[in-house]
Design goal:
Layout: E1 9-10, H1 41-50, H2 52-62, E2 66-69, E3 79-82, H3 85-92, E4 99-100, H4 110-113, H5 123-133, H6 140-158, E5 166-167, H7 168-185, H8 191-205, H9 210-217, H10 230-258, H11 270-276, H12 287-318, H13 320-333, H14 339-343, H15 346-358, E6 368-370, E7 374-376, E8 379-381, E9 386-389, H16 391-394, H17 411-414, H18 435-452, E10 453-457, E11 465-468, E12 471-474, E13 479-485
Parallel strand pairs: 3-9
Antiparallel strand pairs: 1-8, 2-3, 4-6, 5-13, 6-9, 7-8, 10-13, 11-12
């Protein structure tokens, strides 16, 4: 069923198999209707929450290209999910025309992000806020961040105990959290900085397991039964973060007032940029808008990147040939390599792309809603149908990536893939605003760890993807041993 309650039906359009915006085809027999995955709704929802990879791989077998689902928690009814790149291109290139991308579909994230961040906004508000944020993650700003990323990575990796197994994701989380904290707040090593980072990590961990992530998907579990209840613990951690973030915002506002209403031009962090910005009506962002935007940047800016870097360390050390080729490329630049030169290395780039393909952190693009009837790949969908592009399943398509379970960076040196065949950061108006920084940070941090330190996997057991909040992460955190420096 679509969101509007009408079943998508097979179209008799002569362009069957190609995206088609002409809605005048006539539906045919019921056996051509879109399928739903097998199983009772409750069991499918539990499987989706507790074992999303099992759920997605099963649906790929049962319902390739398209299927309908009403258990994922997007919108108020059924959602159409597709892994076909032509379909995703059609959907994601028609934002604000054929399709809308309402931020309220992301309400599952509101316990963390509030309601006023770029992720939660819709239409013109989303467009204006996105335009405000984008410069902080592109161009010259990346050059400024490069050395910071390399130095922080080497400092934190060098402080690890030697010859002791530890989950490498703990290290990559520290790296990504400190990087985003400095970029967002301009923090270095003060007490408030440490407290915000520690509390933020604890709040993310509170929904870090598949079972605890159920708190986000089942509203009935979101009850504060005291400080020892699961939701109560989360709310108290969130309140602590809020207190710290609002204190920082108010301290900055007091500084600006003390300086006659002028922002400190020497500050280059995102909070200062946001506080200096004004709407078209000359209005400053409210405290809540600032808080929600900062929380979105902090959560989205460190959780996903931490998992991607952990996956990279797993695959590099799982496959000796990959590690050997990568080290040979890095060693050509020498120990004092320029960060931008590191980021442009072709094999490093291919390795990071293959990590994001083989072990994607995000499972879906943001939802889109059809504003009018749509004919797509031979199916007729009524207005108000909600669509999701499945990043995970697209990256596992054998017609795009032969032997998709193999980790083979060379596929990105041998072929070019369209933005709808390789889509780790989404596409269209909801494409990840921090994509350029995430790619840059991943390359530099991984290169700094591999080139400067000797790591080994603590054991050779396969690392499987599991749910962490709304993303996928290595199940055991990639246990590794630091053997020493190179």
């Amino acid at each position: 069923m679509s969101k509007s309650g009408a079943i998508a039906s097979k179209s008799t359009s002569p362009s069957d198999g190609q995206p088609n915006s002409q809605p005048d085809s006539q539906p045919v027999s019921v056996e051509n209707q879109l399928k739903k995955p097998r199983g009772l709704t409750l069991f499918r929802r539990l499987e989706w929450v507790l074992s999303p990879v099992t759920y997605l791989e099963r649906t790929k077998t049962d319902t390739p290209d398209f299927f309908e689902e009403d258990t994922l928690g997007f919108g108020t009814g059924s959602t159409v999910i597709t892994s076909h790149p032509e379909a995703m291109q059609y959907i994601l290139t028609r934002d604000r025309t054929t399709f809308s991308a309402p931020g309220d579909f992301n309400r599952i994230l509101s316990p963390f992000l509030g309601t006023q961040s770029v992720i939660m906004l819709s239409d013109q508000q989303h467009k204006v806020r996105r335009q405000l944020l984008t410069p902080a993650f592109h161009g010259e700003r990346l050059t400024v961040y490069g050395q910071l990323i390399c130095d922080l990575t080497k400092e934190l990796a060098g402080a690890l105990p030697k010859n002791q197994p530890l989950p490498i994701r703990q290290l990559t989380q520290k790296i990504s959290l400190q990087v985003i904290s400095q970029i967002v707040f301009g923090f270095t090593d003060g007490p408030r900085s440490k407290e915000i980072m520690a509390t933020l990590a604890a709040a993310a961990d509170s929904v870090g397991s598949p079972a605890s992530a159920a708190l986000l998907f089942f509203d009935g579990l979101q009850r504060d039964l005291g400080p020892w209840s699961p939701w109560g613990k989360f709310l108290r951690k969130r309140q602590k973060i809020d207190d710290l973030v609002y204190a920082e915002i108010r301290d900055r506002a007091a500084e600006i007032e003390k300086d006659g209403g002028k922002a400190n031009s020497e500050r280059t962090d995102i909070l200062s940029m946001l506080m200096a910005s004004r709407t078209e009506d000359g209005e400053a962002l409210s405290e809540q808008e600032l808080r929600d935007e900062l929380m979105a940047l902090l959560f989205a800016g460190h959780e996903t990147t931490a998992s991607a870097m952990a996956w990279a360390m797993y695959w590099i050390h799982q496959l000796p040939d990959v590690k050997e080729k990568l080290l040979a490329e890095l060693d050509q630049l020498g120990p004092e390599a320029d960060p931008m030169a590191i980021a442009q290395l072709p094999y490093l780039t291919a390795v990071c792309k293959e990590v994001l393909r083989r072990s994607p952190v995000a499972m879906f693009t943001f939802p889109r809603t059809a504003q009018e009837p749509v004919d797509l790949m031979g199916y007729r969908f009524p207005a108000e149908t909600t669509f999701l592009g499945c990043i995970f399943l697209t990256h596992q398509r054998e017609d795009l990536y032969p032997a998709p379970k193999e980790f083979r960076p060379e596929r990105f040196l041998e072929s070019k893939f369209s933005p709808y065949e390789f889509i780790p950061f989404g596409a269209g108006s909801r494409r990840c605003v921090g994509e350029a920084l995430a790619r840059y940070e991943m390359k530099l941090a991984v290169a700094s760890m591999v080139a400067n330190y000797r790591f080994e996997l603590a054991d050779q057991r396969p690392e499987n993807p599991v749910r962490r909040g709304v993303t996928l992460t290595p199940e055991r955190g990639v246990p590794m041993i630091l053997k020493g420096t190179r």
